[in-house]
Amino acid sequence: MSDLRITEAFLYMDYLILKATKMDDYEEMMEMKHQDLTGSLMCFRALCCKGPPPARPEYDLVCIGLTGSGKTSLLSKLCSESPENVVSTTGFSIKAVPFQNAILNVKELGGADNIRKYWSRYYQGSQGVIFVLDSASSEDDLETARNELHSALQHPQLCTLPFLILANHQDKPAARSVQELQLGFSHCPRLWRLAAQ
User: Which positions in this protein are listed as binding GTP (predicted)?
Assistant: First the structure.
């Protein structure tokens, strides 16, 4: 909206006020309004002509891990959802996780035996990977997780992407430390980052 159009809008509003109050001295009213017009015009510009806020960049991530590792709970917490209604994911789900400077669109893939063989179908378009690991799991589950991680790290669609391995359930008594897990996963073929949750 141009400055001229805004001024015309204010003048028309003044005319309507004058007509409603039956004020006889239009000149006196215009002089009072002229003092406030500059300030009002600046305020109007700040509110209406500012435009929409700049769009936050969006990044597509894939979140994988065995059943019970805490993928759904993690995403629910990041989305400020209630943790009481968390149900293990069957198949996949997509959540938009908002941050101040970006939005993460996270595809969470179920970790059951019969679903893991389909993980690779959902890798396309991903820009990063979160592998959630239950740090208090049994040795058998830890070995299965190690094999799945190794497979994901070598997958052609993921091999160049940033990888975060999240050692979840650190609050459980049987949880392994980050150092123990790093030793157990040291044979992985490329660089990755292990963080505790």
Answer: 65-72, 111, 168-171
| Residue in the structure block whose two tokens are 């391995």 | 165
Token output for 21: 């109050």
Q: What are phi and psi of 140, to 5 degrees?
A: -65, -45
Q: Please give the distance of CA 34 from its chain centroid, rounded to a whole number.
A: 47
73 is in an annotated binding site: no
pLDDT one-digit tens code per residue, 110-134: 999 999 999 999 999 999 999 999 9
19 marked as binding residue: no
- Tokens at residue 44, please? 């109007």
E strands, the chain, in order? 58-64, 92-98, 103-109, 128-134, 163-168, 193-196
Tell me: is residue 69 an annotated ligand-binding position.
Answer: yes
Q: Of 166, 161, 156, 138, which Cα lies nearest the Cα of 65? A: 166
Ligand-binding annotation for 135, yes or no, is no
Q: What is the pTM of this model?
A: 0.70
Q: Which tens digits make up the pLDDT trace of 151-191?
A: 998 899 998 898 888 888 888 988 888 778 877 766 665 55
In this prediction, residue 64 carries a pLDDT of: 96
Tokens of 115: 């679903």
With H, G, I as helix, E, B as strand and everything else as coil, classify residue 166: strand
